[in-house]
Amino acid sequence: MPLFRNHSPSPANGRNSKPQAAPQPSSPPPASNAPAHAPNPPKPADPAPEKAPYAPPPGFRKVREDVQQFLANEIKSLIDVSDSAEVRRLAEPVFTKALEDAQLVVSRVEREQMMAMIMADILGYGPIQPLLDRDDISEVMVNGPNQVYIEQRGKLTLSNVKFVDNDHILRVIERIVTPLGRRIDESSPMVDARLPDGSRVNAIIPPLSLVGPVITIRKFNKDPLKIDDLIRFGSMTPEFAEFVRAAVVAGANVIISGGTGSGKTTLLNVLSSFIPENERILTIEDAAELQLQQPHCVRLEARPANNEGKGRIAIRDLVVNALRMRPDRIVVGECRGGEALDMLQAMNTGHDGSLTTIHSNSARDTLNRIETMVLMAGMELPLRAIRQQIASAIDLIVHQSRLRDGSRKVVQASEVVGMEGDTIVMQDVFRFEQTGIDENGKILGELLPTGLRPRINDRIEDAGIHLPPSVFGLNEGTAWYKME
Fold first, then answer.
1. Distant-in-sequence, close-in-space partners of 58: CB < 8 Å, separation ≥ 6
2. Dist. CA 167–CA 174, nearest whole Å
3. pTM for the complete prediction?
């Protein structure tokens, strides 16, 4: 029986959608002299605008520095920074004295707001901590102290959150990267990092950034998404889910492609969950963000150079080393350079079922990108030899896209079937077909099978998994899967 046949319909906005309000009792009937139906019913009131953040007085900077300096000394020996109640207990008398020294007279409400800002700087990530705590925000972008954007349901919105100055942002960046053993300064003004929950962080500071320090945080769900969630969101269909699950279980080498923010890593997490638990999995990433649940999973993370410019361990080095670690599956977070050659060689030397992601505009463009990245490895390989490696290594390319309405969908699943002359031959197994746009600007369409017989189905059958022809848009009575 197919595993993804019955799925109850859910709202389009997915797992974070709010429940519908309970129906209100009907209003009393109109008076006899009133019309039965008002021709122009009143429009519902617009939602209240977001409340502007509290702006502390100029003297607050000195107060905050005094409290933070005191706690910086105390935390080393007396308290655990994770104990928020104890930190606040120690901070409050210092905060009161600092207010008196600065001759600041504030109300009780202002005092609480100022204390909350100080605690957020000490225990969290400053002004953006409330944004990181919200489940409906998927990305936070800090463009200097006065501009913080958020992404909700694929749409960008300018928030009311602001930092005090550039130094305030730098302190937040330091708080993120220091526990990971990474650094950011004028000699190394860019850094990739992650939050404790796995959310991806990129920071870049002056002199490279002309608007001040910039932070980009791609949030991850507290609970990893499952295949049923993607079906409910409309990112894929149950038929495609059956097919791609069978392909991963059968050990197909799958490339997930797409643009920035299209959901590649999320889909990689979902596909990785299909790997059987009795297999040894090695994950290789720049910044560890995959959320695999299997018990036998070894996680490797690349390392940047130290202050002397030495000690860098690149993803390519980790891929080469992974081949000596007896992996059943190799999962690379993203191929973006010469490691593509080592990944292809791993796929061609018995490590079936490997997974990775690549930035590209389409499934065909993914092959062109791989060719370019292999050449970046510095090997003097003829183009035909590179293409033969690609054609024999890769089984399936799943292309994910973020559409104009902000939704993220699988729009193409193409099988690599071999070579004809110097050209790699592909065939689409599934393709997204847009049917229109509704009154709210939402794109209508569905991921449909092309009706072609995928060669990968032979491997799926050999693994003991039977997919009915209807998964691929064929008649149930068609015995095509028995054909040679």
1. none
2. 10
3. 0.74
